[in-house]
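Can't attach files on this board, so I'm pasting raw text. These are the components:
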Amino acid sequence: MVPTGVLALADVTFGYDARAVVRGVSLTVARGELVALVGPNGAGKTTVARLAAGLVPPRTGTARIDGRDPATTARREVAQRLAYLPQRYELAFPFTALEVVMMGRYARQRGPGLDSAADEAAARAALARCDVAGLAERRFDALSGGERRRIVLAQALCQGAEAIILDEPTAALDPAHAIAVAQALADERGRGAAVLIVTHDLDLAARYADRIVAMADGAVVADAAPAAVLADPRVQAAFGVTLHVGALPGGERFVVAR
Amino acid sequence: MSFVSGGARLTRARWSLYLSVGVIGLAVILLLAPLVGPGAHGRGVALMSPRAVWGDGIDATIFWHVRLPRTLAAALVGAALAAAGCAFQAVLRNPLAEPFTLGVSSGASLAAVIAIRLGVASVAGTAGVGAAAVIGAVAAVALVWQLGRVGATLPPATLVLAGVTVSMFCGAAALVVQATADFAEMSRMLRWMMGGLEWTQLATVARALPPLVLGAAVLIWLGRDLNALAAGPEAAASVGVAVGRTQTLAFAAASLLVGTSIAIAGPIGFVGLIVPHALRATVGPDHRVLVPMSLLGGAALVVGCDTIARVLGQLPVGVVTALAGGPFFLVLLVRGKRGSALWRSE
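---
Top answer:
C-alpha cells for the assembled complex are below.
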C-alpha cells in the first residue's frame, strides 16, 4: 500500500545490525497539519524523523515525501518539498548566522554563483521570524545554544518547503522563545505546510499539535488528538509517569507529569 | 568584525575585491620571482635587470630556461596543493586534513621509490616516476577513504586515523625499499622525498596544466556544496546537496591535483594546511571565494618559498615549506586543544 499525506511512512522497520530500532511504524502528516511525535528517550523518535525525511532508507515498508520515494528522488527535489532540522547542528567552519540561514536556499539555486538579493531577503525574513535578526552578522559558532537553535530553525523556514520535520526544535530554548517557535510552526501549518516535530515538551504538544503520535520501544502506541493520547494509559505506562492534563481559563491545555 | 572578514555574507563586491587583490598580488610575485637569485659567490641576493632578460647573455638563458619554468611549476604546484587541502578540509570537516596528514603524499612517495628501485627512471625517465607517484597518490586516497568511511559517511576522526595509519605504513615501506637500494638510487629517492623544482622544464609545466585546470574547475564548481557540507552530510542532504556525488567529485578532483603536483615536484608538505587556514581567517569560510583564493594564495606561497630556497643555496622547496609549516601546525594544535567545535569527532 502506498501511503497518502505529504509525509507518509507505512509499516516501516529500521535497525542497526540485528537490533530493530523502529518496528512497523505507520505515520502520516497531511497539508495544514501539525503532528507531535513524543515518547521516552530511546523510543526511536529521531530515527522515525530521519526515515520520514528520507535520510535513511527503511529496511522494510515504504517512505514517501509528497508521493515520491526519497530513495529514487534527487536530494535537491526532496529539499524543495521538505525541510529537516536535525537535533544537533555543528559547523566545521566559522560561517556567520546569515550564511548558515542562506544555506537553506541551496535547493532553489543553480550552479556555482553567489547568492542573490532575493536569497538574502528570504534569509533575513526567516531570521526576523525566529527573533534573531540582530545576530545575522555574528559567527554561528560563537552564539549560545538557544540562539543557534533558532538560527537553524530560520534556515529550515527559509527553505520554503511544504513539509517541515523538526527534531526537538524547542530544546535549549527559554520559555518565551519556545512559545515563539511553536507559534511560528503553527503559522507554517496555517499557510498549508505539513509539520512534524519530535519533542519532549508535552505542554507545547498539547497546545499546538493537531495530533500526537506517541512511541515506545520502536513502535507507535497511540496516534490521536492530544487529549486522548495524553490520557491513554499505554502512553502513561510508556513514560512511566501519570500525566495530568489541565486547562487554563482561556482553554489552553497544560500537562503535569507525576 | 574586521574589514577584510567583515560583512554577514559574501557579496559580489567582496568577492571581486578579494579576487582582484589575489590576482594582482600573484602577478607581481610571478613577475619578480624569476628575477631574484643568489648573489655573487652564492652570497646575498641579486636582482636580475629586466633588460637583461631580453638580451642574449647568460642572464637571459637562466631566466627563460631555468627560473621561469621553475617559477611557473612552483605556482601550479602551490595552487594545486592549497586547493586540494581546502577541498579535503571541507569534505572531511577537519581543518587538519591535507595531502600530508591524509597519507596521500606518503602513498605517492612510496610508489615513486618503488618505481626508482625497479629502474623505471632509467627506462621512462622522471615522467615515469611521476606517473607512478600519481597512481600512488590516487591509491592512497582510495585506501584511506575505504578504511575511514562508515557506510556512506566519512567521520573525520576515523578518516584522519586511517590517513595517519596509511602514512606511517607507506613511510616505513619506503624506508625498507630504500634500504635495498644502491647509492645512486638512494640519492634519487632522497631528492624525491624532499621535493624540489630544480630540474623542471616548460614541457613538464605544459603537460601538468590540463589535469590541474580540470581539478581546479571541479572544486570551484562545487563551492556551494562544500559550504553546505560544513554542517555534516545529513544537514547538507537536508538542504538538497547530493552528498555522495559531491564527496566523490571533490575527492577525485583533489587527488588529481595532488597527484599531478607530486609528479612535478615530489611531495611538498603543509601548503594545503597553511594556505586555506590563513585565507579562511582573512576572506571568510565561503568556498566560493576560498577555493579560488587558495589557488592564488597557494601559488604565491610556493613561488615565494621556492625563491627563498633558491637564494639560500638550491635547497629543495619542500624543505622550506616544511620548516614554515611545522610551527604553523603546532600553533593550530595548541589552539585546537583550547576547545573548539572543530576538534570534536562530529
